[in-house]
Specification:
globular, 9 helices, mainly alpha, single chain
Length: 189
């Protein structure tokens, strides 16, 4: 079965109506595509993007079964097992025991929460943008646990360690990745 990006988008919208969740999915898709290019997986850019787009497929409707229900949905649609596993792996240690193994799964694990934190920091800026956001601003808010409290610092740190990157490198690269599609995502209705 040929499952396209449009198919993935339509599936996502079938289970997600909240613009916040849709924009988060598009942000993570863009960041995953960026990292695929950056890390030498040019031939897998579309797959990495689709993993990012569908990673929270079940979150809006089934938050208590996050990363579990999505596997059922995708299996019922006959989707590739690699896609199912990769999307579910970002719930490792939270809702599933599928440990991120491939570098792509580790990136997803690391950047899911981080994109939320970076987005929240950007909204506090006069520009409301990541275009002029710097590492030091994110690091300051990273240490303030009450800021964007829903973004787990432990998971972000664990993700950086999984990748063998410093926290500074992970944050810096993710800011750069988020800059690419920011304007396009902001215009989404």
């Amino acid at each position: 079965m040929d499952f396209t990006r449009d198919d993935a988008w339509n599936l996502l919208k079938e289970y997600n109506k909240d613009p916040f969740h849709l924009k988060h999915a598009l942000t993570v898709e863009g960041v995953m595509r960026y990292f695929a290019q950056d890390l030498g997986y040019e031939n897998e850019v579309d797959f990495w993007g689709m993993v990012g787009l569908l990673h929270d497929l079940d979150f809006e409707q089934y938050p208590q079964a996050h990363c579990l229900k999505s596997q059922e949905i995708m299996k019922a649609k006959g989707l590739d097992e690699a896609l199912i596993r990769a999307t579910a792996s970002h719930g490792y240690g939270i809702t599933v025991d599928i440990k991120p193994e491939h570098e792509m799964e580790k990136v997803l694990f690391a950047i899911d929460e981080l994109t939320g934190l970076i987005g929240a920091v950007a909204l506090m800026r006069p520009s409301k943008s990541v275009q002029d956001l710097e590492l030091k601003s994110v690091k300051k808010k990273f240490k303030t646990m009450s800021f964007a409290a829903g973004c787990s610092r432990d998971i972000i740190q664990q993700g950086a360690e999984m990748l063998g990157w410093s926290l500074d490198d992970l944050i810096t690269k993710t800011i750069l990745a988020m800059r690419v599609d920011e304007e396009k995502i902001a215009q989404m209705n």
